[in-house]
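Let us practice reading a record.
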Amino acid sequence: LLELHRLPRPDSDKVMYLQHGVMDSSYSFIANGASDGLAFRAFDKGYDVFMGNFRGTSGLKHKRGETMPAKDYWDYNLDDHGNFVIYAFICEIRKVKHRELHLRQANMTKEQIEAFNLRKKEGAQQQTTRE
């Protein structure tokens, strides 16, 4: 029903979630190619990039034989995107990243953990000075 595409960087603690608008698809974030596509540019900057696709977009058509009747598949509105779909995407991204980063931390040496925590602390301090 929903698709979440990804340019994976499992070790990155920086995540970018991109969501297309009405009458579009996640393809718009990669359509300009590796040098100009927003998703690729974020990936090159070290982000783990997730791109959500709403139902009914290109490639996400209801197929005969699916367990959900076509009537139910198409029974949604724009409020559903904001109230349920985006929330579901964010929950899935959090679950995936929590699992990956937890596994990474379990395999880190003490020095790597200290360097990781220092980098995180410095990033938080930079964020506070910007505000």
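A brief commentary: The two ends are 39 Å apart (CA to CA).
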